[in-house]
Amino acid sequence: MAAVAESKGRGSAVVMALYLLFLMLPIYWLLNMSLKTNREILGVFSLWPQNPTLANYKTILTDPSWYMGYVNSMIYVVMNTVISITVALPAAYAFSRYRFLGDKHLFFWLLTNRMAPAAVFALPFFQLYSSIGLFDTHIAVALAHCLFNVPLAVWILEGFMSGVPREIDETAYIDGYSFPRFFVKIFMPLIASGIGVAAFFCFMFSWVELLLSRTLTSVNAKPIAATMTRTVSASGMDWGVLAAAGILTIIPGALVIWFVRNYIAKGFALGRV
Amino acid sequence: MMDKPVNNRAWFLVLPVLLLVAFSAVLPLMTVVNYSVQDTFGGNEFFWAGLEWFDEVIHSDRIRAALGRQILFSAIILAIEIPLGIFVALNMPKKGFWASFCLVLMALPLLIPWNVVGTIWQVFGRVDIGLLGHTLKALGIDYNYVNDAIDAWITIIVMDVWHWTSLVALLCYAGLQSIPDAYYQAAKIDQASRWKVFRYIELPRMQGVLLIAVLLRFMDSFMIYTEPFVVTGGGPGNATTFLSIDLVKTAIGQFDLGPAAAFSLIYFLVILLISFVFYTVMTKDQGGQ
Amino acid sequence: MTKIILENLAHSYLPNPTKDSDWALKPMNMTWQDGGAYALLGSSGCGKSTLLNIISGLLVPSRGRILFGDQDVTNLPTAARNIAQVFQFPVVYDTMSVRDNLAFPLRNRGMAEADVAKRVAEVAAMIGMTDTLDRRAKGLTADAKQKISLGRGMVRQDVNAILFDEPLTVIDPHMKWELRTQLKDLHRQFGHTMIYVTHDQTEALTFADQVVVMYDGRVVQAGTPQALFDTPEHTFVGYFIGSPGMNVIDAQVNGNIATVEGAQIALMHGFGALSGKTQLGIRPEFLRLSTGDDGLPYQISRIEDVGHHRILRGKVGTADVNVIVPEGQPIPADANRIIPDPAHTHVYVDDWRVDPAKAERAA
């Protein structure tokens, strides 16, 4: 209602402006650096590039050892998202619709995996995937990230599914739908925003994770994040390229946010508000 | 919901998740348990070591110090990010263009790879080329996160606040959005002060999302690895060596499998325990009566 | 306590209203007498909640003034107006006990704790919640929560008016009746001005002394329930009040003769020659079945027995017309005509009733 909104005055605007400034400054600084030459970065201190250059971006986009990092990251992130959502959908349906032997324990146990420190799993994963010949493959990273993404996806989807009245399932069965057909044709469209939110989170956590993805890869599936750390230490601080690489890692996230912007708030509450 | 039908065939629907998580969690965890009770003198020969490693871990001053730092870090993070997140959420525009604008910008730090977050702050805080470090130096403040433990802590805390406060704020915002206008109108008519509106309308409505926020922030801050590792590498000295950094050093750096495994299990259990305590305390209130 | 005057009041939710339809509330003048029990009746979207929120100060009107007695309160905030309002859905402070909920508006105004306790006890007795005063509000049923909302609305004795915005929507039917009776009693007892918004005519007619009917952002009629029934000033009032509503039939009117579908009937008054969309409005209660050639040609399509009377559904030409036949009166098998009671036959031009007295003076 208008009157309520109006009561938020100038004070709120100032608070938000300061907070957003705080969030944006470091990112701006990175952007600023990415458009400078190394000489300018180290030589003059300036708030914006004096001689803007795209050379740093060109370095990255023309060198396979750089840009393959992005390709690798995208491959395992997409694989992980697809796997997580696919297995989580039926499980979330089971949790939201039925009681069964050990359901509560199972649900809690799934969630405990979200609490497992990645550091704990780094070494065992390394050994496990090496022993079955999956080391340095995209699927290894995708599967490893399922450790925390599958429980999260189940949790989010269960929240959205519980919001769909059960009468809809029953009506569909009475109308003669088989379970798989009902699930795909009727139920999934109903929780489309939930699936979107779950996919967003899987994407997010898989995209930002480094410890496991670095441990499980060496060359062929090396993620961009790892490429950054290694190249930097090897080439004696090429600040401009580092900054450009950093900015390029922000772009996929920014794109994804743009697509889900209308669901962000509800999504971050995992459909449970 | 009480009226869900009992159907044990639902297990078939859960089976894929079960197999997948068993593969990626149970199997590795068994390896960890296995290592934690064995010793090796090289090669592939292992000996039963009983609880020796657990004993060593529990009495290790190094790990105890790391645990202390970890608890202090998580406590500071929660103490800053939860109130700040609530405060930001309360000041966000409710709808329209500016609401979307704020949401998109706020979500941005959450989707930056964690090592890039570290890189951003590593650069930002540098005295020679970073805006923050340079400005502080220009103001005559002696700031150097590489050599000074306090400065390193401040940098990492500010970085974490920068990185994660938006998550808390977005959760609280979602909670606030679910409050019908009638509540605010009733409060006006009842002549409730701004504080009372917060205390009796907004805070109770945010309880559920705050629980999620506290749990997520606690777990993730307790497991923090990448960001401080990039910024300080755990230093100066061991000043910012948190549990995960210490663990990775032991396990992958020194290949001390036994102690690392025992350490892992204890670490995991501590997180479970504290999460459980948080969960119990924060839901205790919800029964009614 | 004081009377509430609306002067040239109008409201639009748009910043720059241009068309007539941009206005949620069209310009109106109205006076709410001190101590009156009013019902504000209309279908959803007719502007009744907007009007209520303007009176309580939750909305500032785009135009016009609101006066409480002599004081202009148009720009005063809600708190300064001393109004109580109860909303459609229960608003309770979940974390407080029932007692604290009821005490909340009093404590916020700095009332002494002893007086608060006394007043809360009184209100709790009124709404029948003395036993549950110390329970947390959260676990209560929707009924109980709405009773708390009602109680909070009535706990302050010095209010200028109590506004109810469809307060019984979530309440069980039998409980509705009970609460409405209680509200009525409270009104008699304490004499607060009460304005009760509803879309349910039964609720409006049983609660209020004065019913204000709104349609499309306008007050179309304000009057006693009897007046609304006998002489609806607008076809909407005719439709909306009564069960079934008033029949509205297209007609040509010339002097004191109305022509419908070729049949002529006599009117009690002369109206001259009317132009515009001319219609007759006759309530089903005032139509009599007949055979032969007098009255209007009528074709019965269905008979509904609703207990104490029967409702005939049928048509005059293309217009749907309902007739109420009292119990015990036979329905002739060959009935093909209806004869209106001239005393209760109204003439409408462009949906507004033509006042016969004025029409006669003009003619």
Descriptors for this entry?
heterotrimer; B: 289 residues; mainly alpha; MetI-like fold; two-stranded antiparallel sheet; 12 helices; 2 strands; 71% helix; 2% strand; C: 363 residues; alpha+beta; Rossmann fold; OB fold (Dihydrolipoamide Acetyltransferase, E2P); 2 domains; 6-stranded mixed beta sheet; 4-stranded antiparallel beta sheet; 10 helices; 23 strands; 32% strand; transport (chain C); NA-bd_OB-fold (chain C); P-loop_NTPase (chain C)
Quick synopsis:
With 289 residues, chain B is an all-alpha fold. Helices cover 71% and strands 2% of the residues of chain B.
Question: How would you describe this structure to a colleague?
Answer:
Chain C: Residues 4-241 form the ABC transporter domain. Chain C: GO terms for molecular function: ABC-type ferric iron transporter activity; ATP binding; ATP hydrolysis activity. Chain C: This is ABC transporter ATP-binding protein. The complex is a heterotrimer of chains A (273), B (289) and C (363). With 273 residues, chain A is mainly alpha-helical. Chain A has one domain (63-268): MetI-like (MetI-like fold, Orthogonal Bundle). Chain A contains 15 helices and no strands. Chain A has helices at residues 2-6, 10-34, 38-43, 55-62, 64-97, 103-114, 118-131, 138-162, 167-174, 179-190, 192-208, 211-215, 224-234, 239-260, 264-268. The radius of gyration of chain A is 23 Å and the shape is globular. With 289 residues, chain B is an all-alpha fold. Chain B has a single domain, classed as MetI-like (MetI-like fold), CATH 1.10.3720. Chain B is 71% helix and 2% strand. Chain B is built from twelve helices and two strands, in the order αββααααααααααα. In chain B, β1 and β2 form a beta hairpin. The two termini of chain B are 19 Å apart. In chain C, α3 packs across α4 (113-126) and α3 runs parallel beside α5. The longest helix of chain C is centred in the middle third of the chain and has 18 residues, at 173-190. Helices cover 26% and strands 32% of the residues of chain C. With 363 residues, chain C is an alpha+beta fold. Chain C folds into two domains: 4-235, P-loop containing nucleotide triphosphate hydrolases (Rossmann fold, 3-Layer(aba) Sandwich); 244-362, Nucleic acid-binding proteins (OB fold (Dihydrolipoamide Acetyltransferase, E2P), Beta Barrel). In chain C, a hairpin with a 2-residue loop joins β13 (257-260) and β14. Chains A and B meet through α1, α2, α5, α6 and α7 of A and α1, α3, α4, α5 and α6 of B.
